[in-house]
Predict the structure.
Amino acid sequence: MTTEVLRVIGDGAGVPDNDVPEGLSNKDLVAIYRWLVLLRTFDERAVALQRQGRIGTYALYWGEEGTQAGPLYACDDRDWLFPSYRQNAIGVLRGVAPSTVLAWWRGYGGRHGFWNPREHRTAPICVPIATHLPHAVGLAWAAKIRRDPVASIAWFGDGATSEGDFHEAMNFASVFKVATIFFCVNNQWAISTPFSKQTATETIAEKAAAYAMPGVRVDGFDPLACYAATHQALERGRNGGGPTLIEAFCYRLGAHGTADDPKLYRDESEAQRWRALEPVNRMAAFLLRRGVLDDEELQSIGAEAKRTIAEAVQDMEAIEQPGREILFDHVYASGRPWSFDEGLAELQGTDRPPAVKPLAPQPGPSTGDAEAPAET
Amino acid sequence: MVEALNLGLRQVMAKDDRVVVLGQDIAQTGGVFRVTAGLLDEFGDDRVIDTPLAEAGIVGSAIGMSLYGMLPVAEIQFDAFVYPGFEQIVVHAARYAWRTRGQCPASIVVRIPYGGGVRAPELHSDCPEALFTHVPGLKVVSPSTPGDARDMLVAAILDPDPVIFMEPKRIYRSVRGDVSDEPSFSLAGDDGIYNTVISHARTARAGGDLAVFTYGATVPLCMDAAGTLSADEGVEARVVDLRSLYPLDAGAIIAAASECRRALVVHEAPRMAGIGAEVSSLIHERAMADLDAPVGRVTGFDVPSPQFANEDDYLPSVDRILAGARAVLSW
């Protein structure tokens, strides 16, 4: 059993940089950095929007951008992504409008908050834990039946490895030699539950042994290490080698969500220590060290991301609150059951309540998934 | 009925290579009830798949396959084994169309042999249909004749929405009947005909004195009871086989209740919040003025499906159906 963590980017001081993964040009490195910055900008803006009462409870991923941009950069356009809520904006890197993702957090459904997965090879954001893993397996399995060289990659956290669906999906993928990458972002916290209470194993990666698949550990704050492990796993998978479990070892630098206060259950000085490793500035420093980009270019990438997200916020706020008819849209693809028309008619006979606003953040600690309602 | 289901699967698999079947012990042995017998030889192990023993994995994989454009048919070995797959059905299958702007419904069929009467071990005799009819986004159907079994299964597979296909295992081999060579509709499935085939009730017996609504394994029992009522009392009961439990064929239900003026609902599942409650409520809401008596119910009791030594006490019998019918008739 290895607890070794694969790493590419050093710290510019005592820890040296390793070789850039084969096949990545400077242009690729810049592209990955651009994605990191876009994800970071989205996340920070989303938290601000929640604080301002413009979207609802939001699950942040600050610090985990490298676990998304790195693996995604290793994917072909045909490969399918299965994100959890912690990767809520990853579809943006596949062409989903960022305003659509923000609208979802604003509580909007239908065409405002969801997208067509086939258009972006990106499944809808999975809200329950680990239940999307069997979908990723089924998809890559279907591709295998069709003899298409299509892989799937599913993201989940350390908490998800306690769920039955994780084990069932790992087992199915391995038995049928399916090209699915199980990408576990081990940020060591499932809301308030620490890694030590989640599992008795020392690592997540070693769980792969029970399913006879490779288990790889990478530095989750290192986008290039995440890229390299995924790239290798995809190659294997597409050549009939079956699935791989990748454990991206990192730390949840922020709260679980905007309704969560980590001070209630952990020592925040620990988070501060890990914060020095976060991927966006680390990648920027790496690119500066290698002379791939200069300060001015870094700033320009940041400004570009800010513009993109600012436009997305405008687009989101330009969407009117969906009408009542949306309740009954798309529940069935084959047509509306008779009761839907009656339901709509019943609604239309009543006044519509005022527009729904997200609950504004309230003072006082809370933990969990819902913002506490205001005391009256 | 088993042969009819098998025929339907073979016919639709031959016409459409998107159709795959998966489940426990379904390929090599053809399923514990032999519904999938012979399919492995005909279609190969890519499309007829023995899976590990894990229902969430089976249903979840089927959803992923559907996302890639396949039409998976998942077999759950016995009714009470579906519960580990329940989350996948409720949280994902039922909501996939809704969560994808209607573009990617989970086009899966979950086949569930259900109900008692076969002297099976504990937890092999549940009737969980009402758990599914309560979940928006699912269709729930149950055939009671071989012809319906074939046509409804093919229609369910071609239907873009997820269909919970409840197979009354007690009458798997006891109901027999001729099945036409081909389904009564196009196997291409692009004409929306599946809606007609699987969402309409069937009049199993004509009559104007009492409407008896039922489905699945209790249909033949209601037919027997109706025969007795006719012979002994000159009462002609109309037996309506609901076929679709969601959506309910409201038009047919209300018409039959209004015309007969008295109605009884019969099912094997527990009474509380069951299909009978919904049918009764529908009739009372919409045809109260036409009724001469409140709608009656003969159902399983609100207890766990029992060990088989007691299952005949639990299951609605012809005698209980007759007693229920007489109570409505004499009200």
Observations:
- Chain A has a mean pLDDT of 94.
- The longest helix of chain A spans residues 26-51.
